[in-house]
Amino acid sequence: MTCRTVNPIKLFFIFLVMFLGLPKAYSQSLEAQFIGNEAFRITDGKTILMTDFPYKSGAYDYMEYEFDFSGTTGTVLSLITHRHDDHFAPVLFANQGWYILGPGEVTVGLPQNRLLPFSEKVIFEPLTIWPKKSTHGNTEHYSYLVDWSGRKLFFTGDTEDLAVLKDLPELNALFITPWFYRKAKLNDALPESKKIIIYHHLENDIVPECLGCIIPMQNEYIEIN
Ligand SMILES: [Zn+2]
Predict the structure, then answer these.
(1) How do the domains of the chain map onto residue ranges?
(2) 79-98, pLDDT tens digit by residue?
(3) Does the domain at residues 30-210 carry the CATH identifier 3.30.230.10?
(4) How many angstroms is it from 16 CA to the middle of ligand 1?
């Protein structure tokens, strides 16, 4: 029988990591909860970013969702790519005290005091957002690069414009649709990213050649650091 003794120096370092290392590492990451379609609730514990949400549940036969709106208050920004019902529902937005950044087609008719002025570079709390004009059907559509306290996120929206992927910085997370991922991969146009997160997929979707991609289930949490 062996007797295991705990080395006090080792113990001291374990405590050091517990009390200094872990809380610091934790505070540096964002938590993203997948709601459905292109909707994520992303937070650093203080500011909340809602992407393409609130949308109309089940619109165009895409994902239905259940979401507890009462748990999302405080400093909240809706970041909207285009006006289609599976991305934005003005009626649902009207009931929330959230801010919004989106194309004119989306924000027309919404309360002025909740609109962030659209410009080349938009600053909201710890976020700096660069809207990038891109195409999608006959809509006014934007993809977005977001810098969140140094972490860089890119949201493609529904576009298939390879041009929006050009000249991006190295990303912490790329949010991209399965069809655009395929096209970008074929054209060798994918930007460098620590995480590739597929969105607007179908339940149990298989995305070819997407090894290491995250294909979230509804309500799944993803850590971005
Ligand atoms: Zn869509």
Answers:
(1) 30-210
(2) 999 999 999 999 999 989 99
(3) no
(4) 47
Q: Which residues contact 211 (CB under 8 A, 6 or more apart)?
A: none
3-state helix, strand, coil split of the chain in percent (to 5) is: 25, 30, 50
Separation of CA 158 and ligand 1 centre (Å): 6
Q: Could you tell me which residues come within 8 angstroms of residue 93 by beta carbon, excluding any fewer than 6 positions away?
A: 54, 78, 100, 110
- CA 84 to ligand 1 center in whole angstroms: 7
- Answering whether pTM is above 0.85, one says yes
The token pair at 174 is: 């790329």
What SS3 state is found at 19?
Answer: helix
Compute, in angstroms, the gap from residue 70 CA to the centroid of ligand 1: 25
Question: Residue 42: which of 52, 31, 53 has the closest Cα?
Answer: 31
Expressed in angstroms and rounded, the spacing between residue 140 Cα and the centre of ligand 1 is 13
pLDDT at 20 over 90: no
